[in-house]
Amino acid sequence: xxxxxxDEHEWIDVEGETATVGITDxxxxxxxxxxxxxxxxxGATVDKGGEAAVVESVKAASDVYAxxxxxxxxxxxxxxxxxxxxxxSPEEEGWFFRLTIxxxxxxxxxxDDKGYKTFVDSL
Amino acid sequence: xxxxxxSGWKPEMQVSEDGLHNGPSTTTGNRAxxxxxxxxxxxxHAETTGVDLPEIDxxxxxxxxxxxxxxxxxxxxxxxxxxxxxxxxxSRQNYGIDLGFFPLGSCTMKHNPRLNEKVARLPGFADIHxxxxxxxxxxxxxxMNELAHWLLTLTGMHSVAMSLKAGAHGELCGxxxxxxxxxxxxxxxxxxxxxxxxxxTNPATAAFAxxxxxxxxxxxxxxxxxxxxxxRLGPDVAAVMITNPNTCxxxxxxxxxxxxxxxxxxxxxxxxxxxxxxxxxxxxxxxLGVDAMHINLHKTFSTPHGGGGPGSGPVVLSEAxxxxxxxxxxARTADGVVHLVEEEQADDFAREHFGGELSSFGxxxxxxxxxxxxxxxxxxxxSHGADxxxxxxxxxxxNANYVLRSLEDILHAPFADSGPCMHEALFGDKDFGGGLxxxxxxxxxxxxxYHPMTVYFPLVVHGAMxxxxxxxxxxxxxxxxxxxxxSVAERALAGDESMKQAPYYAxxxxxxxxxxxxxxxxxxxxxxxxx
Amino acid sequence: MRYLPxxxxxxxxxxxKIGANSIDDLFVDVPAVxxxxxxxxxxxxxxxxxxxxxxxxxxxxxNLAAGDAPFFLGAGAYRHHVPASVDTVIQRGEFLTxxxxxQPEIAQGTLQMLxxxxxxxxxxxxxVVANASMYDGxxxxxxxxxxxxxxxxxxxxxxxxxxxxHYSQVVKTMAQFTGDTIAxxxxxxxxxxxxxxxxxxxDEDTACVVVQxxxxxxxxxxxxxxxxxxxxxxxxxxxxNTEPVALGAIKSPGEMGADIVVGEGQSIGVGLxxxxxxxGLFAVRDPKHVRQMPGRLCGETTDAEGKRGFVLTxxxxxxxxxxxxxxxxxxxxxxxxxxxxxxxxxxxGEKGLRELAAENHRLACIAADRLEKIPGVSLLNSAFFxxxxxxxxxxxxxxxxxxxxxxxxxxxxxxxxxxxxxAGLEDALLVAVTETAxxxxxxxxxxxxxxxxx
Lengths: 123, 531, 454
Prior knowledge:
The complex is a heterotrimer of chains A (123), B (531) and C (454).
Chain A: E1 3-5, E2 10-15, E3 18-23, H1 25-31, E4 34-38, E5 45-46, E6 51-57, E7 61-65, E8 70-75, H2 78-81, H3 85-88, E9 97-101, H4 113-121
Antiparallel strand pairs in A: 1-2, 2-3, 3-9, 4-6, 5-8, 6-7, 8-9
Chain B: H1 40-43, H2 80-91, H3 114-120, H4 123-126, H5 138-155, E1 159-161, H6 167-184, E2 191-195, H7 201-208, E3 212-216, H8 226-232, E4 237-243, H9 255-264, E5 268-272, E6 292-294, E7 315-317, E8 329-332, E9 338-341, H10 346-353, H11 371-407, E10 425-427, H12 438-447, E11 454-455, E12 465-467, H13 475-494, H14 513-518, H15 527-530
Parallel strand pairs in B: 2-3, 2-4, 4-5, 5-6
Antiparallel strand pairs in B: 1-7, 6-7, 8-9, 10-12, 11-12
Helix pairs in contact in B: 3-11, 5-11, 6-7, 11-13, 12-13
Chain C: H1 8-18, H2 49-60, H3 84-90, H4 93-96, H5 108-125, E1 129-130, H6 137-152, E2 156-159, H7 165-178, E3 181-183, H8 195-200, E4 206-212, H9 223-232, E5 236-241, E6 260-264, E7 280-284, E8 297-302, E9 308-313, H10 319-322, H11 335-372, E10 378-379, E11 387-391, H12 397-406, E12 413-414, H13 415-418, E13 428-432, H14 439-453
Parallel strand pairs in C: 2-3, 2-4, 4-5, 5-6
Antiparallel strand pairs in C: 1-7, 6-7, 8-9, 10-11, 11-13, 12-13
Helix pairs in contact in C: 3-11, 5-11, 6-7, 11-14
């Protein structure tokens, strides 16, 4: 299962036509204790680069952008009661939403694991 | 044993992990004058009351239409002595200007003269209804007019909308006037330009008025980048929102040129008047081409902040925006009578005062504004006079520069080379050791007996610390603060680990804000019911 | 100048430390065109405390204070007795001269008070969460409409014709700029609230229905019916209350199905003050809606030693963090008025509030019965709490109110003052009767009204 990364610090797992999206370990560390995650509606269409979710820490609110265009099929309801999952397991249990991929061509230009690591090191 | 109060204190808490809280623990959790106090719901009772009213007569006539409230409301009462003690104890867990130096930048925490409080409580002001026949409230309308006259004279502006409830409300009023004026000339514009260093209400206000917000960059000297601004102006820009003096504590020397450029491009200039205290009586914003500016009466004109309001935010307007101001307003006619201009008289008055129709964009609040703040602010103005207000600005600016020059050798002062500051001095957290932050320094200042300065604002300076001493501090008070600030700054630079746990001596240690936000408890729940 | 501690010696020493020759050196960034050459000439010079007090007192004395006349005005602002200890508490410098509690370790007094206040308001309204206050009832009403739009993602609000007209105007004014559609109406002068008419205007695009309880004419609408109708179309019910004392006698909006309850809290602790500062109350029934609320919220937490404490929380909704994406641009609210409400409500308690409400209703019933007997006067309401509408048989009520004032009686609010020039409303007079009116006052009003009408 290939995993891609964006320069907005989202990760995206692709499995067939479905993609799972979350924020990276680096992102959660920058944000600090996450207190709330606002997720998109199931059925909504999100556009590549458009606002899809919001993460709130005590002193900040940050937009999470859709890495690719698609229709939201599922959101991580565990985050409603336990937003801390984004801190403790950002790249697994703390996933945000799943969507059906409209155009696999949009995956081109996203970073792979190694590329993202280099990107983060450069920050 | 159980602690005999319910305030959350437990005997086993009296640990002294850091060796700083030596001394035996107390049975009550109190420490002499530092008194713990439970919630009213833990000490009051449904059947207790502190007022004497007639017993309810179950046989009395009832014309409530069958909507009687049968279930308990869930309120508790205390008798008067218990009430006074409860709130007196709570008050002692608060820091106020009356207690000490309160250098909260951009908030102008100056002394609140007590004459203002006395005047506001005169029954002729405090005990009149907003809808009384105007013949019975001429004195109140005169106060509004007199205050309006002072505001217009001090700002050099054309008209003033008085009804706005606070700064952000006034800001909204100003932007809505601009929107209405543009729409009246059939000019739909989409963008409001806001400097990066602006107060958060600026972008929030512009967004509310359906404008797209674009940031204007700052120069390295902490001012609006004039050339970048000019380059961005065009037929889509409705307004530029500028704070002057700005949130870095600096005067914007190019404001006149900015205004001319904005006007030439068909836009308007909104000035955030939050920092008017630095220039009151010395500089009139109207001379700088401003079209609209709110004035926080609770900052510059000393009406009390009251733990977060009430405020009052009259908006002064240029001649171009005046016809669009919200109703109601007051105006004096040639015969000396003061009128309250409400919806029905608006058109007639407009013909008389504006030489045309009034195109008011509407009404922003019930009734006429914060009368209780008007009486206080006018009392303050009359006390100071034109000479005293000028001295206010000068002393406020002098005090801030004194703070800046007394600390710039030890703390990073990003704009110290940009010339004098206005009423506030800005520092950053550069070179703090041991992973210490501005927050740690602020909490250490609490232990020294001070309310911290504004922290992490403006956003353009890392770990910003904005110090506004105001004019009502003595030199001795400021010197003492500088000594205390210097000592905590030295500790921060040296990486003093103990600061991470500060404050040690406040009524509470650091509070867990993450827990508060993750599992919000926003109202009291009876522990037996919620168990 | 009695408020300015610096001496000329201090100023000289400080300028020397700064390295400036004169104060003018500190204003070098101000362009010459904007530099004034001295104190502004059109304004007077400073004055003594005694002189200023004399000046202000002369203006106060030109007003007819409510306490100096039989007084029956309401329409969104009510005169109640405020116990002396309320003012004592709010004048404590630690409350009066504190700022918004951004440093919670040294603001527990304000924070605990706000937590108590939020709890009192939530209970009074039959809701789960109330915020730490808004500017006033009318702005809270608009914020409720805006919030309903965020929750339902719809942009049409249906306003009851019997909503306070200032509140309707505020909502309509704001909606012009946000692009929301507001369907409002004029009040129907009839005995019962026009629930059927209101329900017929709810459609599938409606974000919320806004109804006042008791309404501007003093009537008490059945909220359950409105809640059911709104919910059936996926809309929220917003209930506005301008007289919190009423909720000591009539059912809470929350228990009747309201989703958002807002109102004016001025009756409890704040006083008339010619219209401000007042106290906006804002509460929601469903905890899921909390993050869409405007304004500050105080929450419970613990400190590093495990002690209970309070903080401002969920701030990521607010302008200082969310900037252009905030739920509202509100910053300052009505903190000190919330304290006054909190103290007065604590003095009343459940027992006192119920007795206060009963006393208001008892006197209002006496007044309604007495005034209805005046030839040419009829009582519109079948149900009311402490305010009702009289019809004066075609006589313009605005003139009647002025004539009563000439006779030293503040007799009520004419509907024509609130709805100028609207046909059919000119002869209607709103009369509010609180515990501050005596039976003698009621008799004076009745006899003077009879005199004016004859």
